[in-house]
């Protein structure tokens, strides 16, 4: 019993420290976070307390209002912290990959399956919606990357739908904050075993290409790579 209490006591300071750190990070992007949270808590508690006086149960409604005020404050804080985090990540290389890593269960993500010299990159996620290719970088350049990767996917797993998304703020693009929601709204067309089989086929193809022997030294003049061979990314 004493060990459990000690573990709980050790966890609480760490949790409080994490909340404090999150608040500081959020406040850098959202200067009004403190006023907003205070207003939400006070208004929620005040409304329930007033109702309690009106119906003759100020203590009961006051306690309920205090609990709900804490809950409402936590919800608002979480949403504004998430919005601030996405705002700081927007436009940063690899931001889309970070979102994909936290998309949730049922999805398998592979970052940077394609890349060019300008650091435009395509990530891949596989789930019950099929294969989703997520590109980040210059919209004009990533289109060719997406087209090439989509063609490859259709050749390897022709029976699986392939979706493509470009992360950005322009027309026809998906904002970083809406990326996860957009992917979760895609229609589910695959079963669990089909998702596993798709991942296995893609993994096998990746292993095959990575283990393919390549000649050492400069390539002889006039020699061409066979079709379907590895391409430089």
Description:
The structure is a single chain. This protein has a 4-stranded mixed β-sheet with strand order 1-2-3-4, sandwiched between helices. It contains 7 helices and 4 strands; from the N terminus they run ααααβββαβαα. A hairpin with a 5-residue loop joins β1 (108-115) and β2. Mean pLDDT is 77; it is low at 6-10 and 207-233. The protein has 233 residues and is α+β, with helices and mostly antiparallel strands. It is elongated and about 70 Å long. The protein has 2 domains: 16-89; 95-211, no CATH class. α1 (2-29) crosses α3 and α2 (33-55) packs antiparallel against α3 (58-89). It comes from Streptomyces shaanxiensis.
Compact overview of the structure:
By secondary structure, the protein is an alpha+beta fold. The chain is built from 7 helices and 4 strands, in the order ααααβββαβαα.
Largest sheet: 4 strands, mixed
Element pattern in H and E:
HHHHEEEHEHH
Beta-strand content estimate: 5-15%
The computed structural class is alpha+beta
Distance between the termini: 56 Å
* Count of beta strands: 4
Number of helices: 7
Major β-sheet strand ordering: 1-2-3-4
Could you estimate the helical fraction of the residues in percent? 55-70%
Query: How big is the Rg?
Result: 25 Å
Give the averaged pLDDT, no decimals. Answer: 77
Shape: elongated
Any low-confidence stretches, pLDDT <50, length ≥5? 6-10, 207-233
Task: Count structural domains.
Answer: 2
Present the secondary structure layout.
Blueprint: H1 2-29, H2 33-55, H3 58-89, H4 95-101, E1 108-115, E2 121-127, E3 130-136, H5 139-156, E4 162-167, H6 179-184, H7 192-210
Parallel strand pairs: 3-4
Antiparallel strand pairs: 1-2, 2-3
Helix pairs in contact: 1-3, 2-3
Keywords: Membrane, Transmembrane, Transmembrane helix
Biased composition (Low complexity): 219-233
Protein name: DUF4191 domain-containing protein
């Amino acid at each position: 019993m004493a060990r459990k209490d000690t573990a709980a006591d050790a966890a609480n300071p760490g949790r409080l420290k994490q909340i404090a750190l999150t608040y500081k990070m959020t406040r850098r992007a959202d200067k009004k976070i403190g006023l907003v949270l205070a207003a939400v808590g006070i208004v929620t508690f005040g409304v329930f307390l007033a109702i309690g006086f009106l119906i003759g149960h100020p203590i009961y409604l006051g306690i309920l209002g205090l609990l709900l005020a804490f809950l409402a404050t936590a919800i608002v804080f979480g949403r504004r912290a998430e919005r601030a985090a996405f705002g700081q990540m927007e436009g940063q290389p690899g931001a889309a990959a970070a979102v994909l890593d936290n998309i949730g269960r049922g999805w398998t993500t592979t970052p940077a399956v394609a890349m060019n010299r300008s650091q435009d990159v395509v990530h891949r996620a596989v789930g019950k919606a099929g294969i989703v290719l997520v590109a980040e970088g210059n919209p004009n350049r990533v289109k060719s990357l997406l087209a090439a990767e989509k063609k490859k996917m259709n050749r390897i797993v022709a029976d699986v739908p392939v979706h493509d998304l470009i992360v950005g703020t322009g027309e026809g693009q998906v904002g970083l904050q809406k990326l996860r929601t957009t992917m979760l709204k895609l229609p589910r067309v695959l079963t669990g075993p089909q998702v596993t089989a798709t991942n296995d086929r893609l993994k096998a193809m990746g292993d095959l290409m990575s283990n393919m022997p390549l000649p050492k030294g400069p390539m002889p003049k006039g020699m061409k790579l066979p079709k379907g061979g590895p391409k430089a990314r």
